Amino acid sequence: MSEDTLVQEITIEAPAERVFDALAQPEQRLAWWGRTGRFRTTRMESDLRAGGAWTMWFETPHGPATVGGVYRAVERPRLLAFTWRPSWYDAQESLVTIELAETGGVTKVRLTHSGLTGAADRASNAGWPDLLAALRGYLAGK
Hints:
With 142 residues, this protein is α+β, with helices and mostly antiparallel strands. It has a single domain (6-140), classed as Alpha-D-Glucose-1,6-Bisphosphate, Chain A, domain 4, CATH 3.30.530. The chain is 25% helix and 46% strand. It has helices at 16-24, 26-32, 118-124, 128-140, and strands at 6-12, 34-35, 39-46, 53-60, 63-75, 79-86, 94-103, 106-114. It has an 8-stranded antiparallel β-sheet. Helix 1 (16-24) crosses helix 2 (26-32).
């Protein structure tokens, strides 16, 4: 793996369609996307199609923030890829690819965040394990 890429994997006891919906549907993403003490997601707008734009708004201890981009691939229930451009630091646009593979009602989630530039960019995007754990917790309660 190159230095410009972060890869995280997690297994979730839920069908791929439920996992995909929790990732893609704004009302579901608002329910779990956040990190206690760091940020809380307050709103999301999404045009869920290849070429469609998306934006999320957050409250943080340092004030409001956003992240957004454009969907590159939307293949329910196995693939979601989108560009990533955060407002909280000066970053180049990067790419997040989430692949889902279901076996017997259990879904393996593989998240690849590529196009990161430098150690500060990688460090600022190192929260994926916490977010994936929050996704798993959200789906466990459904």
